[in-house]
Amino acid sequence: MASAPLLEAVEVGYTYPGENPTQALEGLNLVVRDGEFLALLGPVGCGKTTLLRMFAGFLRPTRGTVRCAGSVVDGPGWQKGYVLQEESIFPWMTVRENLEFGLLAKGVDPEARKAASDELIRLIGLSAFQASWPKELSAGMSKMVEVARVLATDPAVLLLDEPFGALDAQTRARMQDALARLWEQRRKTVMFVTHDAEEAIYLADRIVVLSERPGKVKAELAVEIARPRSVETRFSAPFLALKRQIWEATRGGEP
Amino acid sequence: MVAVRVRRAVVALVALVLLYGIAAQALHGRLPDRIWMGSHYVDNIQLLPTWGSLAEEGVFLAESDILASSVLVSTRRVLAGLLLGSLVGIAIGLATGRARRFDAIADPWVTFFRFTPALALLPLYVVWFGYGELSKILLIASSVAVITLLGAHHGVRAVPRVYLDAAASLGASPRLAFRRVVLPYALPHIFASIRVATGLAWVTIVVAELIDAKMPSLGYLLALSGAYPRVPTMLIALATVGALVLAFDLIVLFVHARATRWMRRTS
Amino acid sequence: MRRAITQRSLLWLASLVALVGAYTVVASLAQRPDVLPTTPEILQTFAALVVRGQPAPMDGMGDMHHMHHHHPGRSSDQVDTLVQQGVTLQDALGVSTLRVLFGLVVGLPLGMAIGVLLGWSRRTDDYLHPIYVLVRSVPPLALITYIMLWLGHSEAHRLIPIVYAVATTAVIPTYHSVRDVSARYLVAARSLGARGSLLVTKVLLPAASPAVLGGLRYAVAIAWMTAVGAEMLMAENGMGNLLVGGGMWSSRTQTRSDPAVIIAGVITLAAAGWAMDAGTRLLRARLTRWVR
User: How far apart are CA A80 and CA A56, in angstroms?
Assistant: First the structure.
């Protein structure tokens, strides 16, 4: 079932300017199809955040092109819902106000905004916290609000940059579940960056492994595990097989 | 990267110089040249003197030594006040930071000086010490003392308990711990307060000299050029004050950087 | 812990009482009322300045009667001049407070706007920051002499230095906030489709507000300093004017300075400053409830 490519990177290269220019990416080709959950896996510093920022419109490739929904990416916008690695929930707004922010920017009237935020609050299970300040939330809850926040504007793609990287193992597992449930409800096209192989396998339809700097595609694996996935999935044979494959893919190659 | 920033700064400054020159020339005949000073008016004033007239005036001021001696006098006063004020202020501030009892005793006095605008004390000092050097220097010293006192106080209080505990567990006496742990840690706070105090010292001296205008001083120069009025002198005097404030600020920053070279950069 | 606090409060009180007591003793011993007014004299001056004097009626010969027989409290050159003009302590304080508030209300947003402008992009920063540094190096009260040439003796001429002084306190905190702290909020907001004024009002300014509010106490102190200074130099009303003897600057030298008036004025200013500072702390606490 080949659907249209929604995100495309064609021969993309990126070099950081400055006194010692570093090449972050080189000759990278990547495609994410409509409705697909893609995990971008790679070691620290391999350029995955750079690639994501290019898709989000904050960086321009020094070589090659980056496309979203057919046209060249030309700056940020609500069509490309980007969730940063750092905490970016607005601390001066309540949870509800955070969720409604994108709709406010779109000029949606208050009743419609409230209806939308009601649904999102229910979806992420934070009804008890809807009027809370972000300082009252745990790190995991904050992140879920950030993800729900970009969902509110109904973007074409979701770009998530190691959202659960700063969380402890248990919270991370819980958040991965929450994200999986969320995604099953609203099938968006997702590009998810991580350095955790298990997380990639658990969440994605397809995994792209990047090499070390300068980053290029090292391997691509399809995750053919049925959804919905659960804790059991993490110990199943196909899961472990994929883990091994990834392990081998990342170990082999450049010395 | 630095080269780019320097280049842009230079471009901006050159642009400013040119723009001013153009504005001064263009508005030469257009701006009102009659100014009402109280009950009389003065004609033929250029509110935006051209670079030419500013240059002429600058030469005159330099040759007649007016500017130089004014600068010397005012700078001397500021330095004296800064030195006196910061010595007293830092000493007391360190003491109040260290000993809560002393803090409680000194607090009413400190609070009073803290919330009194420094300039408000000028008439009082004039009554007590007459017009002249002493009242001005004391005025600067009192406001500098309050600011550096607070800086030293907060610097001492801000030392993380971890360091104090570590020093104690290594067997350091309170005095040694104070000298080798607390003091160095409080240095950035102290320098930051010195920087603020320096700016305030200049504001204070200029106004004090404006009120008690006597030759030679920068305040007097401003007052005189305002009374005449003689605009080019006024602008040059203003620019000189600005340059001095900037110079002092940079010196404090430099000393701060040298003194805390060993500290980890947190930014 | 509580014993320590009450012990400290007692020390504080004792120190205050000791100060006032010592002054009273020294002043009454010194017998120099023109330099060290005694405590009762100071209190009487307060009384004199709080009651509004009637502007003296003109008699047939066009002379002004001196009012010192008709008002309570102390009498001196300076007190009489003030009372004659119908000036009271509370009037002067009110006027000064209004000037300070105006300076804060106009100056803080102005300073934040400049901070946003400077911090927005590296390019504008590189070009405009040097100019800003040069401009802010000139003390606002020094500028008052130049502004007077343009605007004459007007209220605007006095208020501009106050606004300017307050604005400069808000620029740097906002600048650092926009440049360093707020990058991630801006990225998130732009990925949600925000742009232009929404970005500034709903993201940049709130993100910068803790830093600016942190400096608010300092801004208030600066505002008072500048207001009093401007009034001492060039105003016919306000606390600064009262301190230098009432009346226009040009007539200042004709009134002999009364230290009791000055001390009374300084105490009033200190009290007002303390009150406003307490208010600022409250305001800051309320407005930054959301800060971690």
Answer: 6
Could you give the ipTM of this predicted complex? 0.88
Residue A56 with chain C: CB contacts under 8 Å: 187, 191
Find out whether B33 and B44 touch, Cβ atoms under 8 Å.
yes
What's this model's pTM, rounded to 2 decimal places? Answer: 0.83
- Which CATH code is given to the segment(s) A34-45+74-251? 3.40.50.300
The count of other CB atoms within 10 Å of the CB of residue C4 is: 11
Question: Could you say which of 1.10.3720.10, 2.120.10.30, 1.20.1070.10, 3.40.50.720 is the CATH number of the domain covering C89-287?
Answer: 1.10.3720.10
pLDDT at A3 over 80: no
Give the homologous superfamily in CATH for domain B65-259.
Answer: MetI-like (1.10.3720.10)
Please report the DSSP string for C52-113 in residue order: PPPPPPB-TTSPBPP-TTTSSS---HHHHHHHHTT--HHHHHHHHHHHHHHHHHHHHHHHHH
Among A58, A68, A87, A88, the residue to mutate for chain C (most C Cβ within 10 A)? A88
Cα–chain center distance at A147: 9
Contact residues for C282 (Cβ-Cβ < 8 A; gap 6+) = none
Between the ranges C3-7, C8-12, C219-223, where is the mean pLDDT highest? C219-223
Q: List the domain boundaries for chain B.
A: 1-48, 65-259
- Residue C151 near chain B (CB below 8 Å): no
Chains that touch C (3 or more CB pairs under 8 A): A, B
List chain A residues with CB under 8 Å of C289: 133
Amino acid at C287: L
